Amino acid sequence: MKIAVSVSDNDMTSPVSERFGRAVGFIIYDMESGSNEYIDNTQNLESAQGAGIQAAKNVINSGARVLITGNVGPKAFDVLKKAGIDVYTRADGTVWDAIEDYNTGLLQKANDANAAPHW
Amino acid sequence: MNISVASGKGGTGKTTIALALATLLSQRGIHAAILDCDVEEPNVNLFLKADIHSVDTVYTPVPSVDEARCNGCGKCEQMCRFSAIVIVGGKPLVLPDMCHSCGGCYRVCPEKAIQEIPKEIGGIEEGLKGNLHYAGGRLRIGEPMAAPLIKEVKQYACDADVRVIDCPPGTSCSAIESVRGSDYVILIAEPTPFGLNDLQIIVGMLRQIEVGFGVVINKSDIGDDRVYRYCREEAVAVLASIPYSPESASEYASGFYHEAFIERFSAEFYSIITSVFSGKLKGVCRNE
């Protein structure tokens, strides 16, 4: 299974990005193989609206089943939910820490968006 | 004639001056109307207290997908510039708040799986105070897009000789929609650093959409002279300067003020009216 983590650069030791829609990119970590790939999300940094929706599409297209990020707005959450992706918010520390916390069950699964639109 | 009252900065006195102007015109026998296009925070009728005789609900079309007919081709998603319709797991998901009602998804769908359904975006009330007509929009709480409702408000009181349009502050889509098609825009500016900054932004916007304008400097005795200097350097007409008045502020807070405001600043209002309507509207200018 693959896990997507929002980041501001392509580095497993960089902190989890608080932003989802306008995160710089996502690290897609493969739990089985331990490998990771990076997907760019910069096209959303400049968009006036719909950044969260497009970022959600990027995560869906990466094949990830789990998303770890700081905050997710309501529209992005609807899209992720429709695709059956589990969302974990309020993660802190590095990408490694977040994956570790997910594995040990320390992260709380989000049932709803935790940020307002245009946050 | 459509005369918009607008400002880059909020709280400069748009509603006060729009109401005073519309009231004064109607008192002079002009068939006048005031339109409240500040639909996110309408306040004209808090002060005007017109008798409301009708309220209309306003809708905008948004897509609805018949999933049985949809084959998930994604043409609708490619068409939509606002991510209002996205394909998730082979099926479209509609996000109505993002929709700008262009009808593109409905037209490109090869399966005819999309139809347009109405979404309520707000209401428009209509009333009368003396001879002054009033129409004001009120955006539904939580509705993100004001422009479609503003467009509808501007369809009201079209038979009036002068329609004074109270605009939302700023230079966003809703402000542009409000001033679009106006014969003239009266900009209300404060002589403060914020006032100057936001005046420069709205002057740029009006020049780009090519609508004529002049500036009324409100609370003219506060701040500094940089707004005056800017107007001089940019050859922007200053229609009047209205000094700060604690009495007016107190009357404003009580909710009954525009009649007294007109009386207190009648010279300033005649100067505005003369500049704006001279040669365009018979019987309202001082020297006619």
Short description:
The complex is a heterodimer of chains A (119) and B (288). Chain A has a five-stranded mixed β-sheet with strand order 3-2-1-4-5, sandwiched between helices. Chain A is globular and about 35 Å long.
Keywords:
heterodimer, A: 119 residues, alpha/beta, Nucleotidyltransferase, domain 5, five-stranded mixed sheet, 3 helices, 5 strands, globular, B: 288 residues, Rossmann fold, Alpha-Beta Plaits, 2 domains, nine-stranded mixed sheet, two-stranded antiparallel sheet
Topology summary:
The complex is a heterodimer of chains A (119) and B (288).
Chain A: E1 2-7, E2 25-30, E3 36-40, H1 51-62, E4 66-68, H2 74-82, E5 86-88, H3 95-103
Parallel strand pairs in A: 1-4, 4-5
Antiparallel strand pairs in A: 1-2, 2-3
Chain B: E1 2-6, H1 14-27, E2 32-36, H2 44-48, E3 51-65, H3 75-79, E4 85-88, E5 91-94, H4 104-108, E6 114-129, E7 132-139, H5 147-153, E8 162-166, H6 173-179, E9 184-189, H7 193-209, E10 213-218, H8 226-233, E11 238-242, H9 246-254, H10 258-264, H11 266-277
Parallel strand pairs in B: 1-8, 1-9, 2-7, 2-8, 9-10, 10-11
Antiparallel strand pairs in B: 3-6, 4-5, 6-7
Helix pairs in contact in B: 1-10
β-strand percent of chain B reads: 25-35%
User: How far do the termini of chain B sit from each other?
Assistant: 19 Å
Helix- and strand-based class of chain A? Answer: alpha/beta
CATH class of chain A: Alpha Beta
> Any idea what the radius of gyration of chain A is?
13 Å
